[in-house]
Specification:
The structure is a homodimer. Chain A is 36% helix and 23% strand. Chain A contains nine helices and twelve strands. Chain A is globular. Chains A, B: This is Shikimate 5-dehydrogenase.
Amino acid sequence: MMYGLLGSPVGKSWSEVLFNRIFELEENNNIYTAINVSPVTLKRLMEKMDVSFQGFNVTIPYKEDILRYTENRDPLVWKAGVSNVIKREGNGFTAFNTDYAGIEELFTKNGVRVDGKRVAIAGAGGVARIMIYYILTNFSPDTMHIFTRNPEITRKKIKGTWQYGNMKIRSYDDMEKYDVLINCTPLGMNEDDQSPFSPYFYDEKATAIDLTYQYDETKFMKYAAESGGRAINGRDMFFRQAEETYRIFFMDECEREIFSRARGDTLKWMTERLS
Amino acid sequence: MMYGLLGSPVGKSWSEVLFNRIFELEENNNIYTAINVSPVTLKRLMEKMDVSFQGFNVTIPYKEDILRYTENRDPLVWKAGVSNVIKREGNGFTAFNTDYAGIEELFTKNGVRVDGKRVAIAGAGGVARIMIYYILTNFSPDTMHIFTRNPEITRKKIKGTWQYGNMKIRSYDDMEKYDVLINCTPLGMNEDDQSPFSPYFYDEKATAIDLTYQYDETKFMKYAAESGGRAINGRDMFFRQAEETYRIFFMDECEREIFSRARGDTLKWMTERLS
């Protein structure tokens, strides 16, 4: 059976390497392909692909558009309006979202708590929306500010979805200092990427949480170290989401030892390739 | 049936848009997918993919590696040692190369002749090797210099393949002026790419031939205009190669009117997207 990733670009994702390694260790014939889809062909692909395609991860820019081609939605997808995993069920696809599980893993494994903290979130896309939802349902931050390049557009999109006293949508020109900074933009996937926040935003001992996972340390993370604080990349989140994806695709957990070996090999291959 | 492109990165190719448009106009169920393959999964993909996959274009960095997974080779593939199209035939894949047909179209359609000219070629990869072969079998240039970042490595690779009195392998530091400059590197696929040659290399009224096709005019092409000469991009070559690919996949010509409409739509969509 075929599984894969739909998006554009898809070349930075580690999913292809991880899942093919899992399938290899499981000694089955499954394949995972990273498919780069241009906007004019998404429709054809979703309508014409044959039943050997059983499920896909979905990435930028199709996390919302994909819902036009799905029959059913997981409750979290209804809430977020975005899906990052689809699975063939019956005559159509069902849409899921694994961001919540991934974010929960990242916060709990690293002991991050944001009660009473000043939180800044960069980006307002799909994963940022689940981040906001996760924080508001688990913590009471002092302030939560969401930074985007177009605050007006973001305000219209997010308004009415969440109500929180100290939540504001701001532009990167509104400089203020924060305790916890979270990068929900794709900046950091490529080696030379800038940080969404300048060093000015980092209060002393700031915690930086980067949802990108390609590099050990991004510029965004480096600034936290320079503030005397700490930084966490998105790898725990990535692997937790992959476990969830596996569970959705195969309605079963991936065998612990296999997942652990595949995780190790993926980390090794991908970090060697990037260094 | 499934067709596609294998490589990394694949996001800049126009093939996916062109072929899906052709299939749409032909009203069949074929799909063309651009699959981004990492080096550790090429083997699995070639061994495990099911028979619904009938053929692929192959791009950087697998034009040589793909030959490990093919049973038969077209004569041009034997000569060049690289393949850019594979097709399922019998129990395995047969390797083809459409570069010669594409280069021939580019030269003849634009009336380019290089007899007695001083020719500089940037790059020594798969397409460069077919370019050298095409020029040597059709013209007698005054000099033909091949520029690479590692002339020593290129010398070892190309030595013995072609003999030509005035052919030299040089580094970009060896500055000299040329009448005809040909870009066989991927520089020019991305908007901010530099030119492989500095303006110094362009003699007065130089002709620049760029095998990249994504932009109307690349920096490499601009320098030719500044020399008072002319510049040609790789679009004629791209579409000619697509016709050849179609012929290989379906053992038949694509209907003239359909190809022409698909070509026009692809140009329109892709240039709109890039501008």
